[in-house]
Amino acid sequence: MLTIVLSHDKKNCRPGEKIEGTLQWDLPGTPGTLELRLCWHTAGKGTVDTRRVDTFEWKENSPKGSRSFSFPLPLMPYSFSGKLVSLRWFLEFLAPRVDDAKTGLHYFVLSPAGKELTLAGEAHEDAYEEIVEVWDEEEPRESP
Fold first, then answer.
1. Taking a C-beta distance cutoff of 8 angstroms, is the pair 81, 118 a contact?
2. d(C-alpha 16, C-alpha 75), whole Å
3. In the chain, pLDDT over 90 holds for what percent of residues?
4. In the chain, which residues have pLDDT < 50?
5. What pLDDT is attached to residue 125?
6. If we measure between CA atoms, which residue out of 64, 58, 117, 65 comes closest to residue 88?
7. Which of 30-53 are b and which e, b meaning 16 or more Cβ less than 10 Å from the residue's Cβ?
8. Is pTM, for the whole model, over 0.90?
9. Which of 32, 51, 69, 100 is 20 to 30 A from 25, alpha carbon to alpha carbon?
10. Which whole-number Å values give the CA distances from 126 to 22, 87, 122, 131, 132, in the listed order?
């Protein structure tokens, strides 16, 4: 089992803040490597986009344990929900070399308003295209 426990149990985050917590694992075998990924994906009609923003990876020989983490959150893209498409942020905790290890997931909102933005009308498709275009132009960041 792979578990993500956030400090302060935050579900709504603002751009530039840190998301912090503890990772806990109890696996049937030696993991070799564990990874925590900071990602976002779109859901809805049309093409699904998934982006990995940051990865924290380490060698681990103990099948059971815990470790703290801290990720600085990017300035964008914001979490939003529209009639045709939504964008959701999540943390993904995995043990790539362990069979039957269930991935730990934690979804959260990233927005300056502290809540998911709601898009209405036909303009939301244009807003989505702008968000993805700006994201593609950003420089890659170093892992924590």
1. yes
2. 6
3. 54
4. 124, 140-144
5. 53
6. 117
7. ebeebbbbbbbebeeeeeebeeeb
8. no
9. 51
10. 38, 14, 8, 9, 10
Q: How far is residue 33's CA from residue 141's CA, in Å, rounded to a whole number?
A: 21
Name the residue type at position 42: T
Angle 109-114-120 (CA atoms, 0-180°, nearest 5)?
75
Instruction: Scan for tokens 């792979």, then name that residue.
Output: 2
Residue 85 half-sphere exposure, CB side, CA atoms within 13 Å? 21
Q: Which residues on neighbouring strands pair with residue 87, listed in sequence order?
A: 42, 80
Peptide bond into 15 cis (omega under 30): no
pLDDT value of position 143: 41
State the SS3 of 94-142.
Answer: ECCCCCCCCCEEEEEEECCCCCCEECCCCHHHHHHHHHHHHHHHCCCCC
Cα 87 to Cα 97: distance, rounded to the nearest angstrom: 29
Q: Going by DSSP bridges, is the β-strand pair 104-110/12-13 parallel, antiparallel, or unpaired?
A: parallel
What DSSP state is assigned to residue 45?
S
